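Key result, reporting period 2: structure in, sequence out.
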């Protein structure tokens, strides 16, 4: 057997995370034990499952448990499990590297944040699992043997950037992690983790629901002066989801959530559900208080675990929760599924589909409930997860209305208060028929776009939609409560015309006069800008800008056109309509100049500049920015 001790370097990201742990920025150091117990529990789950699916696996599953062994003299605490264990390569791959998505982003944010509390918070959200042992230890030893393998692996590190691995012959099946404790320092929240009282307290607080026995040998008084050693089981092992909600304390739910999610923060809301009858199941779900760093990463794991009759079957059961609710964590325990159920079967199982439907409805109705019972928590939820939930408007047509009901959007009404569609409809002005929205990159671009002028003038509220997903969902929603959703940059805004009474009469006459005055200019501009726009006409929507670009209802909106292009789908460019403000000096000046000297080549440049300005004002991009800049600079030079 190869007994050489090899020294390896931690991967760079792992080294950085370890350094953070060694210099412990996290004040609650007790949680290291929760993390090690959590890993041990997962390893026991995995072994049971492996044994269920392969009964030939040469592994002992007769007494699966976790043992805590404290040695006061040597100042060590060992967390031992007889679970699945790790091969040598797994030890190197899993412990020596951090493969978690979001690591680079986390490290960048940590680097930027000079504030200790903010750093704690970040690291807590990320969850560092095994590495948290280095908050309390100056050396950590791990001895492990994979179930079914002959020999084991010993791993050791003092957290300084390198670790050693060696092969060992006589390792028991499973994993034992021994932390060599730093001296206790109560001021630094570093307690004596060999003290049985402390250990009992931590297990009770953080790991009571773990479904495997957590055992400890403890000395008990025996007779007058002697003591005897006794094995205690420290946790009650009760599956939390099987207990009636009224009997479970919030803290117990919170600790369970942390075990499941590796989040170090309490959840925002707990959702429990029980179905009885022909198909029984229990579900305990959580809405996190914060979006994980990898919310938008492709390989982010979804957080619902599937159990069958209390037996863990799989993590990340995507069949139970749609992607737009991928941040929901929890457990679903079904009574009537086979323990051998595979992912392929899950995908087609009708009962799973029914469960999923019900879980989704329950999550959405819980959020809806929060909107009235606790608006502040609802707001936190929406700030964190709204961008993802909105994907459901497109991907879950059955629940489109329910998702729209819990959505809120920035609007022109109030810069700080988002609005729900219901509230929008309730405060619509007299005469307003439709719900108006504008999509784009930022609130300020949208608010200052020329398209908004008519709405400002009328005092109509406009939804300001700035998330990429907004461009998509607005295309799939026709109406809400009988009100059409309309973009402000469409040619036909549906705005009521001011045609009533004497003022209306005057306005109509004035427009007719303008139409005939401007006819020659408009037809000349149509020719000049034929490559860019499909029509040029007068506008009644502009108050202060000279021009803007609008589209027809059936045209692809420019934002979507850009998105498709970015995805490599080339199509013919979608031409829009240039609308001119007949009251603006630039437009009236151009009309005059055109009437006097139609052949002047400088006029063609003015037309180009006018079109470019309209594009810029809505936040769009110019086809030839350098040419635009040159034309503008020439003009400016002449004014000096
Ligand atoms: N006791 C153990 N038995 C078997 N494998 C283990 C054990 N402890 C850790 N591992 C393996 O090492 C991996 C990394 O553990 P670590 O605690 O760093 O991260 P994690 O549990 O995956 O997630 P988190 O960092 O969020 O806690 C685990 O996913 C598991 O595969």
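The corresponding designed sequence is given below.
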């Amino acid at each position: 057997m190869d007994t050489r001790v090899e020294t390896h370097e931690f991967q760079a990201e792992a080294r950085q995370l370890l350094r953070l742990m060694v210099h412990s920025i996290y004040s609650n150091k007790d949680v290291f034990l929760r993390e090690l117990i959590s890993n041990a529990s997962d390893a026991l789950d995995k072994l049971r499952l492996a044994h269920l699916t392969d009964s030939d696996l040469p592994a002992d599953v007769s007494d699966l448990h976790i043992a805590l062994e404290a040695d006061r003299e040597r100042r060590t605490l060992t967390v031992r499990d007889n679970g699945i264990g790790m091969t040598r390569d797994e030890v190197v791959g899993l412990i020596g590297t951090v493969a978690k998505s979001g690591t680079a982003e986390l490290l960048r944010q940590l680097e930027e944040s000079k504030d200790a509390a903010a750093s704690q918070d970040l690291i807590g959200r990320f969850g560092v699992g095994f590495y948290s042992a280095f908050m309390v230890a100056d050396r950590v030893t791990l001895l492990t043997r994979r179930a079914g393998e002959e020999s084991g692996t010993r791993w050791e590190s003092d957290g300084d950037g390198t670790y050693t691995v060696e092969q060992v012959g006589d390792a028991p099946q499973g994993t034992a992690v021994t932390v060599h404790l730093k001296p206790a320092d109560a001021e630094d929240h570093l307690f004596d983790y060999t003290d049985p009282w402390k250990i009992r307290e931590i297990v009770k607080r953080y790991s009571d629901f773990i479904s495997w026995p957590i055992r400890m040998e403890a000395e008990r008084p025996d007779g007058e002066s002697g003591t005897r050693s006794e094995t205690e089981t420290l946790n009650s092992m009760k599956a939390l989801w099987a207990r009636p909600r009224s009997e479970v304390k919030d803290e117990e739910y919170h600790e369970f959530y942390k075990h499941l999610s590796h989040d170090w923060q309490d959840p925002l809301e707990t959702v429990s559900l029980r179905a009885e009858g022909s198909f029984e199941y229990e579900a305990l779900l959580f809405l996190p208080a914060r979006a994980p760093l990898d919310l938008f990463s492709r390989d982010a794991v979804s957080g619902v675990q599937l159990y069958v009759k209390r037996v863990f079957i799989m993590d990340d059961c995507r069949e139970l929760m749609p992607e737009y609710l991928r941040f929901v964590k929890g457990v679903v325990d079904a009574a009537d599924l086979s323990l051998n159920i595979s992912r392929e079967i899950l995908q087609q199982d009708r009962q799973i589909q029914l469960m999923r439907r019900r879980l989704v409805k329950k999550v959405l109705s819980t959020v809806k409930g929060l909107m009235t019972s606790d608006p502040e928590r609802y707001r936190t939820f929406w700030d964190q997860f709204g961008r993802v939930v909105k994907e459901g408007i497109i991907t879950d047509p059955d629940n489109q209305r329910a998702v729209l009901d819990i959505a809120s959007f920035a609007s022109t009404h109030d810069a700080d208060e988002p609005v729900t569609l219901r509230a929008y409809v309730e405060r619509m002005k007299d005469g307003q028929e439709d719900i108006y929205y504008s999509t784009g990159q930022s609130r300020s671009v949208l608010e200052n776009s020329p398209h908004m002028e008519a709405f400002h003038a009328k005092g109509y509220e406009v939804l300001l939609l700035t998330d990429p997903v907004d461009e998509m969902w607005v295309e799939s929603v026709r109406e809400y409560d009988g009100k059409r959703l309309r973009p402000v940059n469409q040619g036909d805004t549906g705005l009521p015309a001011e045609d009533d009474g004497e003022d209306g009469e005057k306005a109509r006459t004035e427009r007719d006069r303008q139409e005939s005055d401007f006819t020659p200019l408009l037809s000349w501009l149509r020719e000049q800008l034929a490559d860019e726009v499909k029509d040029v006409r007068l506008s009644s929507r502009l108050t202060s800008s000279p021009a803007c670009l609008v589209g027809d209802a059936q045209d692809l909106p420019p934002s979507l056109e850009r998105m498709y292009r970015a995805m490599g789908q080339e199509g013919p460019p979608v031409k829009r309509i240039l609308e001119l403000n007949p009251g603006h000096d630039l437009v009236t000046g151009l009309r005059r100049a055109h009437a006097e000297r139609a052949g002047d080549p400088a006029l063609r440049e003015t037309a180009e500049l006018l079109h470019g300005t309209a594009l810029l004002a809505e936040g769009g991009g110019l086809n030839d920015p350098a040419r635009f800049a040159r034309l503008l600079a020439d003009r400016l030079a002449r004014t000096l």
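The chain has a mean pLDDT of 89. The pocket of adenosine-5'-triphosphate is lined by residues 35, 39-40, 43, 81, 83-86, 94-95, 127-130, 175, 262 (CB under 6 Å). This case is discussed further under Risks and Mitigation.
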